[in-house]
TrEMBL record, chain B:
Record-annotated RRN7-type domain positions: 9-39
Organism this protein belongs to: Oncorhynchus mykiss
Pfam families xref list: Rrn7_cyclin_C, Rrn7_cyclin_N, Zn_ribbon_RRN7
Top-level division of the source organism's lineage: Eukaryota
Domain Rrn7/TAF1B C-terminal cyclin: 267-454
PANTHER family documented for this protein: TATA BOX-BINDING PROTEIN-ASSOCIATED FACTOR RNA POLYMERASE I SUBUNIT B
GO cellular component: RNA polymerase I core factor complex; RNA polymerase transcription factor SL1 complex
Entry annotated with the keyword Transcription regulation: yes
Main location: nucleus
Biased composition (Low complexity): 147-158
Subcellular location: Nucleus, Nucleolus
Residue intervals of the Rrn7/TAF1B N-terminal cyclin domain: 81-250
Name under which the protein is recorded: TATA box-binding protein-associated factor RNA polymerase I subunit B
Length: 490, 600
């Protein structure tokens, strides 16, 4: 089955989620006994010993290692039955071989550990089932001879070992099948899970069912993509294929719409739904979906929601004002987002009075992040903005506003001699742009920065030199410092 | 309840392999795990018509038909135990126990038990409803005439007629009415009476550990070479049926419900528990004096110590010293068991032998963490001077032993972790649980199979033929080899010729305070004193506790007991001298020290 680049990306994501979840849960079981290992053997002698004070203090200190660890699951008790001793020892052995990556041995112990499921006195049978599920998957993942059939039969068994995990295991199973390219089987697993009912539905259960339905809609979308690709490759209009595609679209959209009503992060679902809506030219619908996804307060804040909205609106040539509105929210959520340079250039383009100042703010925010600190584009933006701002009367006021809380460290962080040396070695152009900027802000600093390398000094543009002669900005900064000093004295 | 509706239909679903049938509203069968509908419909029983007046009749007729199908024949709990005992006896016979053991000893004990507990061979059986109340009160007066019957049957071995007698046991003899029992869910008839608190308290009823206790008593009576520690080891290794022993019941003896509480085994009893159980059972059976353990019997300390010396890879010469100690302690003759005398407890033959060896080691090497190493240095010097010399070097022995012990302990841990406890035919306590239990069994089995496929070796610990020894000592190149044999070595570096007799080179002997404790109130003091004891001594205790499968404290107590007899007897002799040590190691300051010169 051939998917578009987009769907491949999503599948990879899925795989990662799936692996990570399993890993983190497994850690709980495997790391459990860390505490018992940290204990010092001598400690078990305990209170019977009438030792001198120093020693007892030592023992006390050792007794409680200050580590945030969960209490061990299974402890040796005086009335332990032989069966429990066996299972406890077996889990201990499994843990050891897992930590040593001896998967064959782990499988061997797992074979005998499976008898815990039959524990008649168990007060937590679900826990045993979960332990077997998590550790079993981990072993299968790493075992050199494990096949897809092993996985399938294992998941089938685990599904029926405990009611509580049925849906989760189904979902995990279908993820695994997807990762291995068994698309049809994955679909089948999801539909089995969809139709599963047991007893009264608990809250968690119904949520999981929603999730499973959403994934099933997601897979319908993949089929839809596939059909679309075949339809477009033949170039002929085929009513039957079109019909089929449409039915998949309907199936998928019902499920996807359903999950989007619940608060949560549904990026892949939203993207696939939007893709289909776009294909059927339902632009208003798409924008509405994206707007709901981005602006619903009950949803957790999700920068991607705004990114998707922006990209879609840009594609559909929405007016500049609307685009700016979206990016403004994105800016408050993630000031260092990769769309920010774009936001900046849009602000510069706009005719609005205050937008230039906003652009200055955005660029300065960007430069606060180390990933953008030596980005030529951003510095270029800053240079252009300064050039345009200097022509305005309120330039000083704007400058003071934006630089207010940065004044103590901003120059030191960007224009140190070390930074200058680095810039001159790596990117001469950047050095020039930065020289101009520092010249505009603080000519006194400019000589320090650009005077690092002789070669660098040569490259200083005439404009920078002009700026050097202009003492005003320096005065500004000095004035700001003075004010601040007075404040602190008060 | 779907179980009722499906009528126990238990074929495997063709689609998913589950057995989880439900009945839809239209009366069709469907699989509840994969929703596969099959060609089978519910047998329509119009219950409404019966509900009016005749419901009782219909339910009774249905009930009996079903009972017969499910229940098999009627049987009693003691019959079940009889089967288990029979299998255990057969396993022991297969190991080479003398053929008379089964019919002449164990069978007789079992009959005595049945009579004493008034389950058979009696005029007022315990399970008869009429008698139960009265006989609880009148108690022991009834048993007097019966005991004479028993002693008769004990003497006349001709009365027993082999296997046929085993199959039909107490059940047929004791008359009972099944009215009361049939309403309760259990396969056997009288499982309920086993589980009432009063019966439990009375301690007279059979239990799974008691089967082993009975076997132990019978083995003792037959003077067989299997000690209690051996018996437990064989049970642990699966050579004697114990865990899931009920699986060998004949087909018509169905086991479920309350029976599972009686016959389910989830642990193997400890040595001390079984010992107590055996002693109590011997008193309950009012057994007469056991046959004396003489020198021709392998349970005699002299032979048993030889066996453990071999096991522990100690030189054969040490046996002379052990025998001397045994003589001094007066343990050669009085080694038998008389249950009806309160001052004659059931001896721990195996632990006693280990204690004798430990005392001999202490006598020769002192084991105070100093002297034994000095002596080993002497021995190695001697061996260096004389290349043909073969002096026993304790350090060398310790190293050999320690390696073997570590390996064996690891092997044991591994076997514990892999031991399989759960039966092929699972037990369920109530009908409601049946489907759940069966399903769990199936899933566990399938999981086991799928992981077995992934593992390289079979899951069950490799079964070895029953052996009296844990370790194999010998020349290199043998199949199972734990280390070189040290049996032929001599003790010449640790003994001195003084006059006509040999004496240990080490002149002193230490022991912990031989305080008398009240056996009822005091438990083991080992946990308290363990830290103050020399490490080498503790290691030796651990070694024997591992070999015998008992707690180190148990060996320690036994050593003290033997020391009490040994030192008590030697102190009374004029030549023995008891003087306090001049210099004592700091950590021994709490202990009463007695050092004596060995004068033999």
């Amino acid at each position: 089955m051939v998917f578009g680049a987009n769907s491949h990306f999503l599948l990879n994501n899925l795989h990662q989620i799936y692996a990570n979840e399993n890993r983190s849960n497994l850690k709980r079981w495997v790391m459990d006994d860390l505490e018992s290992e940290l204990r010092v053997p001598g400690e078990e002698r305990g209170e019977n010993e009438s030792s001198d004070d120093d020693e007892s203090i030592n023992i006390k200190r050792i007794k409680k290692p200050n580590l945030p660890l969960a209490p061990p699951l299974f402890k040796e008790t005086p009335r332990e039955t032989g069966f429990h001793k066996t299972t406890r020892n077996c889990l201990q052995h499994i843990r050891e071989v897992l930590l040593h990556h001896r998967w064959q041995d782990a499988a061997e112990y797992m074979a005998s550990y499976s008898q815990t499921l039959e524990d008649t006195t168990a007060n937590m049978p679900q826990l045993y089932a979960e332990i077997i599920w998590r550790i079993g998957t981990e072993i299968l993942h790493h075992h050199p001879n494990s096949t897809l059939e092993d996985y399938n039969s294992f998941y089938e068994r685990v599904k029926h070992s405990g009611v509580k995990h049925y849906l989760k295991v189904c979902l995990e199973h279908s993820f695994h099948l997807l990762v291995n390219g068994q698309f049809e089987d994955a679909k089948l697993q999801l539909s089995i899970a969809e139709s599963w009912r047991y007893g009264k539905q608990s809250a968690g259960q119904s949520q999981r069912i929603r999730l499973i339905q959403a994934y099933s809609g997601f897979l319908d979308y993949f089929i839809w993509c596939d059909k679309k690709a075949t339809a477009s490759s033949t170039d002929e209009y085929d009513a039957a294929v079109n019909q089929e595609m449409h039915s998949y679209f309907r199936q998928s959209s019902v499920n996807l719409k359903e999950i989007m009503k619940l608060p949560g992060v549904w990026d892949p679902f939203v993207l696939s739904y939007i893709d289909m809506l776009e294909f059927y030219n339902d632009h208003e619908g798409a924008v509405k979906v994206l707007n709901d996804y981005a602006y619903d307060d009950s949803f957790p804040p999700n920068p991607n929601a705004h990114v998707y909205l922006y990209r879609y609106m840009k594609k559909q040539n929405h007016p500049l004002k609307k685009l700016l509105k979206v990016l403004k929210i994105l800016h408050t959520l993630v000031p260092s987002h990769e769309l920010m340079p774009e936001y900046c250039s849009l602000l510069v383009q706009s005719e609005n009075e205050g937008d230039l100042q906003k652009a200055l703010g955005v660029v300065l925010d960007l430069l606060d992040y180390s990933s953008w600190r030596s980005n030529l584009d951003v510095w270029n933006h800053l240079m252009n903005i300064i050039k345009r701002l200097r022509m305005k009367k309120q330039w000083l006021k704007i400058f003071a506003e934006e630089m207010g809380y940065r004044k103590d460290w901003w120059l030191a962080i960007h224009f140190s001699t070390f930074q200058a040396r680095k810039d001159s070695a790596e990117n001469r152009e950047l050095l020039e742009v930065k020289s101009f900027v520092v010249g505009a802000f603080c000519p006194h600093y400019a000589s320090m920065y650009s005077g690092v390398g002789k070669a660098a000094r040569k490259g200083v543009t005439s404009e920078a030199r002009k700026a050097k002669r202009n003492p005003k900005p320096l005065k500004n900064i000095r004035r700001l410092r003075r004010e601040k000093g007075q404040q602190s004295q008060d | 309840m779907d179980e009722e509706q499906t009528g126990g239909y238990s074929d495997i679903c063709g689609q998913c392999g589950e057995v989880n049938w439900g009945v839809s509203d239209e009366g069709r069968f469907y699989c509840r795990s994969c929703h596969n509908v099959i060609e089978r419909t519910k047998e329509v029983v119009d219950t409404n018509t019966f509900m009016v007046g005749t419901s009782r009749v219909s339910s009774i007729s249905k009930g009996t038909r079903r009972k017969k199908l499910e229940q098999g024949r009627e049987w009693m709990v003691c019959e079940g135990f009889q089967f288990i005992l029979k299998h255990q006896a057969e396993a022991l016979l297969a190991m080479g126990v003398c053929p008379q053991f089964k019919d002449d000893v164990l069978c007789q004990f079992w009959r005595m038990y049945l009579q004493k507990s008034r389950q058979a061979y009696t005029k007022n059986p315990v399970h008869d409803g009429k008698f139960r109340l009265r006989s609880q009160g009148s108690g022991e007066s009834d048993s007097a005439p019966e005991s004479s019957v028993m002693s008769d049957s004990m003497m006349s071995a001709s009365e027993t007629d082999g296997d046929g007698d085993w199959a039909s046991g107490g059940g047929s003899v004791s008359g009972h009415t099944s009215d009361g029992a049939s309403s309760v869910c259990s396969g056997s008839i009288d499982a309920v009476s086993y589980l009432t608190p009063r019966q439990r308290r009375s301690q007279g009823l059979m239990s799974m550990p008691k089967t082993l206790a009975l076997c132990h008593l019978a083995l003792l009576w037959a003077r067989e070479a299997i000690t209690l520690a051996d018996l437990l080891r064989f049970v642990n290794e699966g050579h004697i049926p114990y865990v899931n022993a009920y699986e060998d019941f004949p087909e018509e003896m169905k086991l479920y419900g309350r029976d599972s509480l009686i016959f389910r085994v989830e642990s193997i009893p400890s040595y001390s528990h079984l010992h107590k159980e055996a002693q109590a059972l011997a008193v309950f059976l009012e057994l007469p004096l056991f046959p004396p353990i003489t020198l021709d019997c392998l349970l005699h300390p002299s032979l048993l110590t030889l066996r453990y010396l071999t096991e522990a890879n100690l030189p054969d010469e040490l046996h002379d010293w052990v025998c001397r100690i045994m003589e001094k302690a007066g343990m050669e003759s009085s080694v038998t068991f008389e249950p009806m005398r309160s001052r004659s407890p059931l001896p721990h033959y195996d632990v006693q032998a280990a204690a004798l060896i430990i005392i001999a080691m202490k006598l020769l090497f002192k084991l105070d963490d100093h002297t034994e190493w000095d002596l080993s240095n002497d021995a190695s010097d001697k061996n260096k001077e004389n290349p043909d010399g073969n002096s026993f070097n304790l350090r060398w022995w310790y190293r050999t032993m320690q390696t073997a012990l570590t390996t064996a302990a690891r092997r044991q841990q591994d076997n514990i972790a892999r031991k399989h406890w759960k039966p092929q035919k699972p037990l369920y306590t109530s009908k409601k649980d049946k489907s759940v239990v069966l399903k769990r069994r199936r899933i566990a089995e399938q999981l086991q199979l799928s992981f077995q496929k992934l593992s390289s070796s079979p899951v069950a610990p490799p079964s070895t033929p029953p052996s009296s020894f844990c370790f194999r000592w010998g020349e290199e190149g043998e199949e199972v080899w734990d280390g070189p044999s040290l049996h032929h070595l001599t003790l010449d570096s640790s003994v001195r010729q003084r006059g006509a007799s040999l004496q240990p080179a080490n002149p002193e002997y230490w022991h912990p305070a031989l305080r008398a404790c009240k056996p009822r109130f005091c438990k083991s003091h080992y946990a308290e004193v363990e830290v103050t004891l020399p490490r080498m001594y503790v290691w030796l205790l651990d070694l024997f506790s591992f070999l015998l499968g008992v707690k180190p404290g148990c060996v320690y107590e036994e050593v003290l007991k033997v020391e009490r007899r040994f030192l008590g007897s030697s102190k009374s002799q004029p030549r023995a001298r008891a003087t306090p040590r001049k210099t004592q190691p700091k950590k021994l300051h709490k202990r009463k020290q007695t050092s004596k010169t060995c004068s033999r």
